[in-house]
Structure of FAD-dependent monooxygenase:
Amino acid sequence: MKALVVGGGIGGLAAAVAFHQQGWTVEVLERAPEITEIGAGLSIQPNGLRALDALGLGDLLRADGPAGPPQGIRNAEGAWLIRNDIADLERRFGPWAIIHRAALVDILRAALPASALRPGTTVRVVLPDGTVHYDGGTATADLVIGADGVHSVTRRSIWPDAAGPRYLGYTTWRLLTAPYEVAGSVEIWGKGERFGYIPMPDGRVYCYLMGNAPAGTRTGLAQLRDRFAGWHDPVPALLGTARPDEVLQHDTYELPNLRTYIRGHVAILGDAAHAMAPNLGQGACQALEDAVTLAATVGTRGIDAGLAEYDRLRRPRTQMIAQLSRRVGAPAHWDSTLAVALRDAALPLLPSAFLGRSITPAYSWTL
């Protein structure tokens, strides 16, 4: 049996590993000239680690990138809005891990034979019968897996009338600082903007920033330092250690719901199927869940029944998490002074177990 995977990111590589481990011939068609990943840190939450466990890779992250659950949310002046019960989160769901995106790609890539990787291959059209047209040729497979991101060629080919990505009204910056000591992972909410930081095992700090802006707006590090200069420590200090050439900025999009993730001998996963707001940090975790679930259902039920079961399991779950992610992050982007004041007054009144209850559907997944 042969699977063609369109896209060599985290979800596509994970799917390729899962099918390779079942004895399938796999080929990963990646547009970029090499299969790697730009980006900064990546928080792998308990459900993502369990998905990696299905590939025999979870312990690599637990050993090299252990991380604690998020401590909670502060406002720009430093007052706690939500304070998480760290011990309870770890007891209920298990460990977290933090890793550079490129390092996770390297781990997944190393689990595949070199012959499976075809960088520099631009896919133009995918057909439901398992045919893929790319620059320079055509290939066919028993199964095609579209893991080619929010602007997926696979999705457009198979569902040409489906609505495309929609901009969420804010842009996102990601960066890694020089080594700096911080006490755990925290997110900070301001007025239409936020700042999060997570310590990396090597002492550096992964930072992500989000701010309301028209699509296409570009902001450099100097402007970010000015924008967040009045926020509480360690925000200004962290930005002070960053390098301008290492700041990545991407506008933030999500995809409207599809009625199915499968058609014929094609399935889509990850951002190609359900690109979501990054507010829960679940994008990569959901792609990993998709990948191992797809391989498991097809492996046990065959292609047709397995694809149907994959769609039955994954579509309601991922669309629910996308909706939850959109909802929980919305108050961070309120830009009304009154609304922000009411938010900052109301959130500290929530019980300490609020996050654990709200996020249980995401963290408690098992294959």
User: Anything to note?
Assistant: The CA atoms of residues 174 and 248 lie 5 Å apart. The chain has a mean pLDDT of 95.
